[in-house]
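Milestone 3.1: sequence recovery, worked example.
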């Protein structure tokens, strides 16, 4: 099988409630997600058109996460953000790069499976020097 990877970028804020250092404070990142897809090549010679990954997965990322705040359920900041009508995406896990990679992997699989594509891994760059990768077994 052949793979292709599309890079998608968003800006979002978060904090890690149980973190022992600076990441327990509200801050933001320029998240970069590398979405790697696998399939037999189509009649054009592609796994999937890069633009389709951007449209489908990038569209979901833009709608749900871009320029918003990713908050863990129970975070005391949630009511304030809601009162300010802020863009908010609440998750039931600590919003680490590792957990976000797993979440985006699952969502990408769901969104791209109708196109006959298997998403085999997602890399979530939280900073230029740090990333986490989630892969299918």
């Amino acid at each position: 099988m052949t793979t292709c990877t599309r890079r998608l970028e968003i800006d979002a804020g978060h904090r890690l409630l149980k973190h022992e250092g600076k990441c327990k404070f509200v801050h933001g990142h320029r998240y970069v997600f590398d979405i790697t897809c696998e399939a037999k090549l189509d009649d054009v010679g592609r796994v999937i058109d890069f633009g389709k990954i951007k449209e489908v997965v990038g569209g979901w990322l833009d709608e749900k996460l871009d320029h918003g705040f990713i908050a863990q359920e129970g975070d005391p900041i949630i009511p304030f953000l809601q009162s300010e009508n802020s863009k908010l995406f609440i998750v039931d896990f600590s919003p680490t790069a590792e957990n976000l990679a797993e979440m985006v992997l699952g969502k990408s699989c769901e969104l791209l499976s109708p196109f006959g594509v298997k998403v085999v891994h997602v890399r979530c760059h939280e900073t230029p020097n740090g990333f986490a990768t989630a892969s299918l077994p």
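The first strand starts at residue 2 and ends at 14. DSSP finds three helices and six strands in the chain.
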